[in-house]
Amino acid sequence: MPASLETCLSDLDCSTSSSSSSDLSGFLTDEEDCARLQRPASASGPPVPPLRGAPGITGALDAPGAQDEEQERRRRRGRARVRSEALLHSLRRSRRVKANDRERNRMHNLNAALDALRSVLPSFPDDTKLTKIETLRFAYNYIWALAETLRLADQGLPGASARERLLPPQCAPCLPGPPSPASDAESWGSGAAATSPLSDPSSPAASEDFAYGPGDPLFSFPGLSKDLLHTTSCFVPYH
DNA sequence: TAGGCCATCTGGTCCT
DNA sequence: AGGACCAGATGGCCTA
């Protein structure tokens, strides 16, 4: 049990043990259960032996009414314990509810970030929403393809910028900033394929299990269905 | 109906 | 100490 809870409950034990009523006051406590179990079958048997360390073990108990007082004290302690356990349960519950709330919020934020990521990835004709894993994999490959495009541009086409030389006008929003979320997927398919990421060991496509392309596999987008992949032709150098 | 995806709850662990 | 993060469990919804 956390220390704060123990502290809290011990305080509450003191403060509530004298309270007049509780819905839980009628419940059996552990001590009372033990006491009953230790009693002989005959209901009028000898009194329950006091618990270890409990006060009143000495001759004071011999006095008339002392045993009743001890039993009453024990009952009070038992009720307080039940109340404190109920309170502990309640505190745990409220903390759990708060934690659940935070976790829900955290996941909502994560989903919002995924939505933002989806919005800067090429959209698809049927407005198919990428799943989470598809979004991450697609983004990974998309970034790789864009970086590769820039690299090729720097190598082979001096002068004009990579964007002007290599990308069709429709793909201009791809680089360097995020593409327009409203990009028409059809417009992404006009580029001509030149190189294959599969030939590059560093390509995220090279090691994966799904390849896409007419004839030769041009790109591999693990986990993506083929009908989502045709837009990737935008990523290759444009002549 | 089985399987995939998702949201939520939950308890454990790490971090500040 | 409390919040963030994580992974497992569970149940609902949807689709082939």
UniProtKB/TrEMBL annotation:
| InterPro entries in UniProt | bHLH_dom (IPR011598), bHLH_transcription_factors (IPR050359), HLH_DNA-bd_sf (IPR036638)
Superkingdom in the source lineage: Eukaryota
Tell me which GO cellular component terms the UniProt record holds: nucleus
Protein encoded by which gene: NEUROG1
The keyword Kinase is assigned to this record = no
Residue ranges for the region (Disordered) are 1-82, 171-210
Q: CDD domains given for it?
A: bHLH_TS_NGN1_NeuroD3
Tell me, what is one Gene Ontology molecular-function annotation carried by this entry?
DNA-binding transcription factor activity, RNA polymerase II-specific
Q: Residue spans with biased composition (Low complexity)?
A: 7-25, 192-207
Q: What is this protein called?
A: Neurogenin-1
UniProt KW DNA-binding keyword: yes
Native organism is Orycteropus afer afer
Q: Recite the lineage of the species.
A: Eukaryota, Metazoa, Chordata, Craniata, Vertebrata
Record Pfam families: HLH (PF00010)
Q: What Gene3D superfamilies does this protein's entry cite?
A: Helix-loop-helix DNA-binding domain
Keywords, sorted A to Z? Activator, Developmental protein, Differentiation, DNA-binding, Neurogenesis, Nucleus, Transcription, Transcription regulation
**Residues in domain BHLH?**
94-146
GO process terms (BP): axon development; forebrain development; positive regulation of transcription by RNA polymerase II; sensory organ development
